[in-house]
Amino acid sequence: MPKTRTTTLLCLLLLASEAAAGSRLLNYENRVVRAAEQIERIKTDREYGEEAIIYIKKELLPRSEQIEFEGNTVTVDNTWLHEILDSYASEKDPQQKIAKLNNASGRLRSLDDHLRRVEADSAVESSDAGERIREILSRPAYQPEPETPIGAFLRKVLRKIRGVLGEIYSALTRLLERLLGAGAGSGWIGNVLLVVIILLGLLAVVRFGRKIRRPQGKRKKTRVVLGEEVALDSTSRDLAEAGFAAARAGDFRTAVRKLYVSLLYELSERGLIELEDSATNHEYLRKAARFAGVAAPMRYLTDRFDYVWYGMFPASDDDFADYLARYMEAMENVRIVNQ
Predict the structure, then answer these.
(1) Rounded CA separation 302/69 (Å)
(2) 137 and 8, same structural domain?
(3) I need a surface site. Which of 39, 219, 229, 336 has the fewest CB within 10 A?
(4) Angle at 36 between CA 35 and CA 40, to 5 degrees
């Protein structure tokens, strides 16, 4: 590890340790911002990723902590962030790794925005402020992902497999003891024979699996935009229609996301911006801000996207109607710019 990088990390850890001692809301909010900054750095410096994750999990936002605000103490569970970072570390697909970083960064930015609003709202009574903070931190965006039925099923299957393997191992040990004499199953010769038998069994299973496996069709190529896999041949219109379908079904949160990505595709299709796997919504906003008439409605759409998607706030029919009006305004201005 380079000496300068190690020195920098040690300084950051020292500052984080001193800051964490206060456990005030402002201190927590500052650490949320710094965690988001660390995640952005990972995207540009992959070699720093392991150090950054340790720094975030151990120093900036430990799994559980308590914060104080206006005489109220609130228990904070940062497990949701730890799970995303663990998932990022084990992910092999580069696109999915970027998507996980964008997801974590977006949630942290949204959390920071909510906390700033509570701090700035001097009209809120101290007891109400504590309740608002608890409500923010209890939202699904800042809670560990619930175990899915498939996950529970796989965990149950793995537990049974471990049990079966244990029984097979015991049976093989008893067989070796009968063939080679008492105690042979626990000696090094017995262990070697067990390993050989197990490897032969696994090899047979693999060969059998190859024989019965059916040819798979070619995987449809996709790209990741703001953490969402989109088919390469998708168009802005396709995404908009998917958004309208979600709105008709009452899923306004998904509708907001689809329309936002649709706008990004429209900008890309007209050569005004380039879509990048690692880009965030605010980075896209900065790229489009130079076009007159596009910046204002897109800024509104970006803020609402943060609020509804990353903040996991519910969206109503009226909310979507306002969002749709600004979306149409932005799309029209994009077409004017491109004429």
Answers:
(1) 29
(2) yes
(3) 219
(4) 115
Supply the mean pLDDT for the chain: 78
Residues 327 and 294 in one domain: yes
**Domain span holding position 208:** 149-212
> What's the sign of the alpha-carbon dihedral 122, 126, 128, 129?
positive
Total domains present in the chain = 3
Position of tokens 């039925």?
149
Q: Is residue 217 part of a domain?
A: no
Q: How far apart are CA 288 and CA 273, in angstroms?
A: 7
Is the pLDDT confidence value at 82 over 60?
Answer: yes
Domain endpoint, select from 142, 167, 182: 142
Query: Given 110, 126, 142, which residue is the final one in a domain?
Result: 142
C-alpha distances out from residue 198 to 144, 203, 204, 254, Å: 38, 9, 10, 48
Q: What is the pLDDT of residues 83-107, one digit of tens each?
A: 999 998 888 888 788 888 888 888 8
User: Could you read off the pLDDT of 112-162 as tens digits, one per residue?
Assistant: 888 888 777 655 555 566 677 777 777 666 666 665 566 566 667 777 777
Q: Alpha-carbon distance 247 to 240, whole Å?
A: 11
Calculate the CA 274 to chain-centre distance: 23
Burial tier of 167 (Cβ tally within 10 Å: 0-12, 13-18, 19+): exposed
Say if residue 199 is in the same domain as residue 263.
no
Return the amino acid letter for 115: L
Measured between alpha carbons, how far is 12 from 123 in angstroms, rounded to an integer?
Answer: 35
